[in-house]
Amino acid sequence: MCSPFITSCFSRVGQDIANHQMQTCRPLIIHTSPGFELRTFKERPTCSQPPLKITEQWLTSAHRRLADAEYQLNLPDRPLAFKTLGMRSRVIISVIEGLVDLIFNPPSPVPLTSPIITTTSPSHQLIPNIITQLPDYPETLFLDHSRVIQLTKDAADVTSVYLLLMLHRQLLVSSYQDSTIPRRQINPEDVDMQLVKKEILELAPRNLGRCFLRTRPSSDPQSSQAEARELEKWKSGVQSVVLQIASRASEARRRPVSSSNPCLRAPEPHLLKVAESWSENQFKLESPLSALMRDRLRDAVLEIVVQTVLVRGSINPHGPLSGSGSSQPAVQKLATGMEPLAPEIRQLSERLSKLAVLHLNVYQTMYEQDDFSTEW
Asked: Less Cβ crowding at N or C end of the chain, within 10 Å?
């Protein structure tokens, strides 16, 4: 019987061999994976409609939005109008625009609990199920549904935190209705919004941004009951977050911002009513304010991904997230109110950049063909 020391040595040796094999094979995997994905895509069973109809519409719409908005590529020395760029640059930016739009404005209902099953093999039995779960997504993303859905949920969560931070800012300057509370001017820029964000993230329910995602009702009674329970948990969690925000804002209005008082008191009744009414009206997909906040985040992420993928070309799709890498200059230009969310926006953008690079490695040449660019 081997001693623990010998067993440990063999274990380390086996792990070293496995690591060496992975390091040896990794360049081959990276080199061959685009061809494998493209071959898998071509081997999938075709549907009744043209095989790339949604993809063509998706890419053409992205290109049209950029042209209509007179998008400019911000180079270090000067901006360039989108319409003046070469075909390759316009294809890359259009793909990035299309991916960002899918994340922030998903065309199909998004599953909140059950994960999307993906496959890395051309199994004709699995692929139709994958496609039918997200029928309105581009066909060329059929192997990336899990990634896209997770990014979509994360984008909705960041949008929700952004709204809650804006709620806190609004409560700080809301009118006073209690004459016993000393009136004083508060500059929201002097408030520790990182502390508020930390408390939001700690108290927030799972899938905080579910209110901004369309979901497909389940036909199974048990699943429907489970979804109803999850929705009630979500509502209760949001109420707890709103109460904490109102209490934090009320406390800041009572005392100097620089002082610390971890024991919060009950918020001003008027302030709590404002917060609860605000959350009920804004935590909806059709809310104009939430749409504005979502568009701001969308534009910020788009700019960071374009800068990362096209201008600097510094993203490594197979490397770890840097956390403070090439997207830092673009993050520093975030609009007022987004600054506390810089780490979340950077991480979301870097993950989306990796997806964009992987996708372009496989399909960019195909997108540059005349079939996709006749209207450009």
From this structure: N
Residue 46 sits at the vertex; the CA angle it makes with 44 and 50, to the nearest 5 degrees, is: 135
**Encoded amino acid at 18, one letter:** A
Q: For residue 268, what pLDDT is reported?
A: 85
Structure token digits, residue 361: 């490695």
Dihedral of the alpha carbons of 63, 68, 74, 78, in degrees to the nearest 10: 120
The whole-angstrom distance between residue 186's C-alpha and the CA centroid of its chain comes to: 32
Q: Are 100 and 351 in contact (CB under 8 A)?
A: no
Amino acid (one-letter) located at 343 = P
Residue 6 three-state SS: helix
Torsion-angle region of residue 252: left (phi > 0), alpha (psi -120 to 50) or beta?
Answer: alpha
Provide the strand spans (E) within 163-312: none
Q: Average per-residue pLDDT in the chain?
A: 78
Domain boundaries, the chain: 33-376
pLDDT of the residue at 153:
94
Looking at 144-153, 181-190, 311-320, 328-337, which range is the least confident one? 311-320
Q: Smallest Cα–Cα separation from 93: which of 315, 260, 303?
A: 303
At which residue do the structure tokens 């070293």 appear?
Answer: 16
The full DSSP string for 5-46 is: HHHHHHHHHHHHHHHHHHHHHHHHHHHHHHHHHHHHHHHSPP
Q: Judge whether 253 and 186 are in contact, CB under 8 Å.
A: yes
Backbone angles phi and psi of 126, in degrees to 5? -90, -35
3-state SS class at 376? coil
Task: Please state whether the predicted TM-score (pTM) of the whole model is above 0.90.
Answer: no
DSSP bridge partners of 72 = 81
With H, G, I as helix, E, B as strand and everything else as coil, classify residue 79. Answer: strand
- Determine phi and psi for 80, rounding to 5 degrees: -125, 135
Please enumerate, as own/partner, the contacts of 227-233 that have beta carbons within 8 Å and a separation of 24 or more.
227/112, 227/113, 230/112, 230/113, 230/206, 233/205, 233/206
Strands (E), 193-317: none
